[in-house]
Amino acid sequence: MMIATDTPRCPLPMPMGWFQVLYSHELAVGDAIPVEYFGQELVVFRTEAGEPKVVDAFCPHMGAHLGYGIREQTGKGPRIVGDSIECPFHGWRWNGEGQCTHIPYAKNMPPRVAKGETILGAWDVREVNQQILVWYHPKKEAPTWEPEVIPEAAANHPDWGEMIIHTWDINTHMQEMGENAVDAAHFHYVHGTDDVPEAAFQNFDGHIREGKFITRQPTPRGVVDGAIETRSQGAGLSVVRFTGIYDTLLLANVTPVGPEKTYASYAFIQPRATQETLGKTVGQAIIGNICQQMAEDQIIWDRKQYFERPLLCDGDGPFAKFRRWFSQFLVEPTA
């Protein structure tokens, strides 16, 4: 039983940085999809030229939601005309830079429209690794780094197969989830591993965090030595490489829906050459095990209380280093 309370379990602001809002295949040319992240409603659309754009959801004219169509568009998004999304209420059009590009019945444009000003909230967008990412900063500051290209995540890669996607809605702050990356001991007690994985290294450098755990994986043919290598870009984007039994790449992305609600989207990629053989047995078993671990972690995450000064012992991981690194992304919004 969860007790309703107005007191936050983790009184930290949502982190800034690059975050995933959709996969590329979810947004066809001419599509518009309403989403909710960062405590607000947004619309993601793809122009006729194929470029993804993200804007605030509500038309500055009279407040209609831009993510829903009417008449022949009912049940879909509104019309996309050229590089602009058309408001279903009065036909005003807005491009991905937040400028009004057309008012069908106006004889004299409003001054801000005539000047080409940015009126509708528009977001910095990147499409990499078959994902659509946006830059979130509570003070509207410009991006300070670019998301990395992951070669194995390229569409139609000759050596790596298609993405296998799993998602979760998790009721916790993103920092609480991220701390698992430095918490070797929880693997034994939460996930039932035979041993506590050995941390080979944990590095924190600017917006990048890298770590590696050495694993010993039991199989019918004996124990296989393996590794879990993680590279995080800011708070929202991580690539995890599992080696040992069967190579698996995981794009483990998390996006804040609100201060204590997070959407986790995991895309697994495995070798193309064996996807119809070992991929259907060993590969699926590995993915199933990771998803099971997420379900186990979620039992903890959905209910735990954040402690600013946890009582730690010498067997715990580098929580203090992780929190110092993560704190650079925690920017209080402007009042």
What does this structure look like?
The protein has helices at 111-114, 174-178, 186-191, 282-301, 319-327, and strands spanning 17-23, 32-37, 40-46, 52-56, 80-81, 84-86, 93-95, 100-102, 125-128, 131-136, 164-170, 198-205, 208-219, 222-233, 237-243, 248-258, 261-269. The model has no long low-confidence stretch (mean pLDDT 93). The protein has five helices and 17 strands. It has two domains: 17-136, Rieske Iron-sulfur Protein, CATH 2.102.10.10; 154-327, Naphthalene 1,2-dioxygenase Alpha Subunit, Chain A, domain 1 (Alpha-Beta Complex). β15 (237-243) and β16 form a beta hairpin. The chain is mainly β and 335 residues long. Residues 19-111 form the Rieske domain. Keywords: 2Fe-2S, Dioxygenase, Iron, Iron-sulfur, Membrane, Metal-binding, Oxidoreductase, Transmembrane, Transmembrane helix. One of its GO terms (molecular function) is dioxygenase activity.
- Kindly state the number of beta strands: 17
CATH superfamily of the largest domain: Naphthalene 1,2-dioxygenase Alpha Subunit, Chain A, domain 1
Structural class: mainly beta
Largest β sheet strand count, sense and barrel closure? 7 strands, antiparallel
CATH fold category name of the largest domain: Naphthalene 1,2-dioxygenase Alpha Subunit, Chain A, domain 1
Note the beta-strand portion: 25-35%
Summed up, the helix count is 5
Return the CATH class of the largest domain.
Alpha Beta
Secondary structure: helix percent: 10-25%
Identify the overall geometry.
globular
Number of domains: 2
Order of helices and strands, N to C? EEEEEEEEHEEEHHEEEEEEHH
Uncertain regions spanning at least 5 consecutive residues: none
| Integer-rounded radius of gyration | 22 Å
CATH architecture of the largest domain: Alpha-Beta Complex
Side-by-side strand order of the widest sheet: 11-17-16-15-14-13-12
Mean of pLDDT:
93
Distance between the termini: 35 Å
